């Protein structure tokens, strides 16, 4: 939430303070105003989002952006395990799939030409 406030500790801050590697992949609903703090304020060291609401991040764009988010999260976990397989981690993954219907390719293709 945009009005959450910096005085309140988030789960990502608590986990980061406890030694977890913390990453966020996907939508960002903490704040999009220019004065909104970036991910590091919330204890997030790796940040990949799908919209250009923050200029302090990597963007996953194009068709299949959720797939790119999941792939990026898996790659991040794999890279962590190569460095220290005992370090705990937390992945905050907020895809867009929840906002859009998911259909098989066959069903979508059957709609061609329908307006």
UniProtKB/TrEMBL annotation:
Q: Which domain of life is it from?
A: Eukaryota
Which SUPFAM superfamilies does the record cross-reference, listed alphabetically? Alkaline phosphatase-like
Q: Report the coiled-coil segments.
A: none
Q: Where's the Sulfatase N-terminal domain? A: 7-106
Gene3D superfamilies, A to Z: Alkaline Phosphatase, subunit A (3.40.720.10)
Q: Which InterPro entries match?
A: Alkaline_phosphatase_core_sf, Sulfatase_N
What protein does this entry describe?
Sulfatase N-terminal domain-containing protein
- The protein's organism comes out as Chrysotila carterae
